Amino acid sequence: MINNQFILEKFSFLGEDFLNEMHANAVITDIKAKTEIIREGQKNKYVPFLIKGSIKVFTLNDGRELIYYYIKPNDSCLMTFSSIFTDYTSRVYAVAEEESEVILIPVSVIHEWLIRFPEINKVFYHEYDKRFSDVMNMVNDAVFHRLDKRVLNYIKQQISATGNNPLKITHREIASNLGTSREVVSRVLKKIENEGEILQTKEGIKIPVNENVRSV
């Protein structure tokens, strides 16, 4: 059965008729960690809403990833939603960072809902505001921050998104996500560890408990 608590928290303001429509049309599914959900150029059939887990949305350039944002529980993928107004073709890749649970709504149903329940636009306007802020933060990080600051921010964002501290991630994964080399990331991690910003343990990379794990 569809996660009732999630639906009530996200959509109850749209009324009983809409909730009945949601139960009739939405599909819930589990996605294993590191599973590709959509790729650039692929046709979008569904708009996803994340119940639990974490999904990375990014593009690829010469084999290097450029991360746009992470979908967190209670969020949707704005890039997927925006594609339903053009040719339904994805302009991004989306991969489950960890084991995730999502609600999938067919794009044809979303089209109908936008007409029958126009207040649903509030949900997507809210998503747009969050995603625009995410992309602006990504651009500012890349342009104005040194690599050590970017690496530290990335680790904090991952801990915040997954709730895992320590964070199980390899130096190569960090390098791929930030568009640099593993060797450079290893040197940077050693530097910020010596500065007391992180701890590298067998369980993963840890932010000391008195640190704020949100990006700055």
Give an overview of the whole structure.
The protein has 216 residues and is of the alpha+beta class. It has helices spanning 4-11, 16-25, 78-83, 107-116, 121-144, 147-162, 171-178, 182-194, and strands spanning 27-31, 36-38, 46-52, 55-61, 64-71, 93-96, 100-106, 199-201, 204-206. Strand 4 and strand 5 (64-71) form a beta hairpin. Helix 6 (147-162) packs across helix 8 and helix 7 crosses helix 8. One of its GO terms (molecular function) is DNA-binding transcription factor activity. It comes from Chryseobacterium carnipullorum. InterPro entries: cNMP-bd_dom, cNMP-bd_dom_sf, Env_Response_Regulators, HTH_CRP, RmlC-like_jellyroll, WH-like_DNA-bd_sf, WH_DNA-bd_sf. Keywords: DNA-binding, Transcription, Transcription regulation.
